[in-house]
Structure formats: C-alpha cells, structure tokens
C-alpha cells in the first residue's frame, strides 16, 4: 500500500470516529414523533416513543403556540403536567420521564434546551440525570422565560444501557419547565482530533508534492 493510500485510509478511519462523536444517542429528542398531537394543541401521555413516564401524571406534549414556540421542530415537553387530557388524576403533576440509552465506555455530553413557564423562582425546576451525573435547570439561571441551553459532561465506565431522566421539581401546580432538543453525543478524545488534523495535514503535503512533480515532468 503506497503512502497516499495509507494516509487516505487513516483519514477515513478518523472521519468515522468524528462522525461517531456527532451521533445523537437520544431518540426523538425534539419530541416530534410518538404522540399524534397536531398544531397548537396539547396532550399528556404515559409514553412518547422511547420516552416513558417514571413517576407523576405523565409527559405533557405541547405544540408551538400553546404557550411558546418550540426550540427545535414543532413540539416540546412540559413536566409539571396536567392531570386531565390524558394525565393521571391523583398523581403528582411534577413528572419524571426517562429513556434508556445504549452507551459504550467513554466521555459524553448531554445537551438540552430549557425554558421556564413562569418567572417565579422554584416554580419551574427540571433535574436531568444520567449515570450518577446531574444538572438542574431553573429560573435562577435565567433571562426571564427565554430558551436556554444546558450542558452536562459525563463518563461511562462500562458498556451498557443507561437511563437518561428528566424530573420536575418545585411547586406542583401545572406550570413547570419546558424541555426540547435533547442530545447526547460522544466527546472525542484529544488524541483523535490531533491525529485527524495531522492526517489531513500529511495528506495535503503529499498531494502538493505530487502536483509539483507532475508539473516538472510535464
């Protein structure tokens, strides 16, 4: 195998690793599927695709225009859920939901967008958790009731299935925090990025040399 082919193969492998890092391990992270809600309407469900109710009244899906516009797509979730319109009467409106993710050993980042429904501190809390790592979203971070991105870096020591959960906390009054655009992606090791840069650099140098040789022989 010549040098160019070797470099090309190495670059292809590194590009594959980078693509793996960009993969979203969460299914239906923007809540566009699995519910049948149409337009500016809302309904409470026990399951929404791979998302399942862990505790509480259920997962409330709202379409853009019910209270706000979705951060991504046309739908978002509220977890201080209503006990009517599909919600479970007698259950706490502060709902917890989760999804199992198949993850390999490595470093990951959780990203999600949060918006408080009200500007009252303690009225809109959302706790996101996975594998013993967690981050809480509340009006305290806040710019009023705008969408804000939250990030959580976490590690996985053993290949397996891990529960990603979101849980409402604070006043249980059906006026909670909204969630949208949930993403879990792998964080590439520093060595991967270094090799990727070096690989492209070597490939570029080799091609430039071949072009100069071709010009001299022409």
Compact description:
By secondary structure, the chain is of the alpha+beta class. Helix content is 22%, strand content 36%.
Description:
There is one protein chain. With 218 residues, this protein is an alpha+beta fold. The protein has two helices and twelve strands. It has helices spanning 3-22, 190-217; strands at 42-45, 47-48, 51-55, 59-63, 75-78, 96-103, 106-116, 125-130, 133-137, 148-156, 160-169, 177-186. The strands form two sheets. The chain has a six-stranded antiparallel beta sheet with strand order 1-4-5-12-7-10. Strand 8 (125-130) and strand 9 (133-137) form a beta hairpin. Helix 1 runs antiparallel to helix 2. The radius of gyration is 23 Å and the shape is globular. Residues 4-20 and 191-200 have low confidence and may be disordered.
Strand content: 35-45%
| Strand runs, count | 12
Which structural class best describes the helix and strand composition?
A: alpha+beta
Report the total helices.
Answer: 2
Series of secondary-structure elements, N-terminal to C-terminal: HEEEEEEEEEEEEH
**Helical content, roughly?**
10-25%
Widest beta sheet: strand line-up: 1-4-5-12-7-10
Major sheet attributes: 6 strands, antiparallel
Apparent shape: globular
Ends distance:
26 Å
Whole-angstrom Rg = 23 Å
Which parts are unreliable, with pLDDT below 50 for 5 consecutive residues or more?
4-20, 191-200
Q: What's the pLDDT, averaged over the residues?
A: 84
């Amino acid at each position: 195998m010549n040098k160019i082919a070797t470099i090309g193969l190495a670059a292809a492998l590194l590009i594959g690793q980078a693509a793996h890092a960009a993969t979203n391990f969460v299914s239906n992270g923007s809540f566009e599927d699995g519910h049948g809600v149409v337009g500016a309407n809302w309904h409470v469900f026990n399951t929404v695709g791979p998302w399942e109710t862990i505790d509480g009244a259920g997962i409330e899906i709202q379409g853009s225009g019910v209270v706000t516009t979705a951060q991504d797509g046309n739908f978002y979730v509220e977890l201080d859920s209503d006990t009517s319109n599909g919600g479970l009467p007698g259950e706490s409106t502060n709902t917890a939901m989760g999804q199992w993710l198949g993850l390999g050993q490595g470093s990951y980042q959780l990203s999600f967008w949060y918006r408080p429904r009200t500007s009252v501190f303690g009225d809109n809390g959302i706790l996101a958790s996975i594998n013993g790592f967690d981050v809480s979203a509340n009006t305290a971070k806040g710019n009023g009731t705008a969408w804000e991105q939250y990030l959580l870096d976490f590690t996985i020591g053993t290949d397996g299935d891990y529960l990603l959960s979101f849980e409402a906390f604070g006043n249980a009054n059906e006026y909670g925090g909204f969630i949208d655009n949930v993403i879990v992606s792998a964080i590439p090791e520093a060595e991967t990025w270094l090799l990727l840069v070096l690989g492209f650099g070597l490939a570029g140098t080799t091609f430039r040399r071949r072009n100069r040789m071709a010009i001299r022989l022409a």
